[in-house]
Amino acid sequence: MRNVISSVGVLMISVALLAGCGETDEPSESVSTEEQTSAPEPTAAETEVAEVEEVEPLIVEITAHVSLRSDRRLMVEGESNLPDETLVQIIVEREISSGRWRERTRVENGVFAAGPFGPGSGFPDGGYTVQVEVSEGSVQPEAVQARIGHEGQHLAGELVSQSRHGLGQVATYSRRFLVGSEPRQTRDQVEVLESPGR
Questions:
Q1: Most confident stretch, 52-56, 67-71, 84-88, 118-122
Q2: Secondary structure (DSSP) of 40-89
Q3: Whole-model pTM?
Q4: Which residues pair with 59 in a beta bridge?
Q5: What residues are paired with 88 via a beta bridge?
Q6: Whole-number Å distance between alpha carbons of 198 and 183
Q7: Cα 10 versus chain centre, distance
Q8: Is 143 helix (H, G, I), strand (E, B) or coil?
Q9: Over the stretch 162-185, which tens digit does the pLDDT of each residue have?
Q10: Cβ–Cβ < 8 Å for 144, 85
């Protein structure tokens, strides 16, 4: 009888030890789970922010040249360090009447061109302004946005300003010129265009 009781006692102690071993395994699993959740992988938004911070500012450079055709209409050509496919708008404005002519074009291999500008009868003599406006980042092709930013936030330099429509930063180049063959008296630096053949 004592042998039976001692065998039962040994069996109970063995079951208790096995149960205890099972309990010690569970906390170690929960600890490893907590360690995994305490160091989550970065989200897509966090990765995007990190990439945005790495883009260097682009100091915008734009120059434009205006030429008068034999029909007294204007051609505008220019150079820029903006990425290929950047959308720009060329505007020619007559100072005395605020008449405007505009055309959209793209920068290709560092150059752009637009025209001819003006009425069919050609531009009368007088003062004019040519503007080259870089369109807002949100309407630019994806490859251009990757360089200048969705809101033009990577654009920099003296040509850059806030968009009038609150859509981020844009760049604008402006130049004044005169059309006519007669000498003009002016205090500012201005280009005088004469019709070819005169």
A1: 84-88
A2: PPPPHHHHHHHHHHTPPPEE--EEEEEEE-TTS-EEEEEEE-SPTT-EEE
A3: 0.67
A4: 156
A5: 105, 134
A6: 13
A7: 78
A8: helix
A9: 988 778 999 999 999 999 865 455
A10: yes
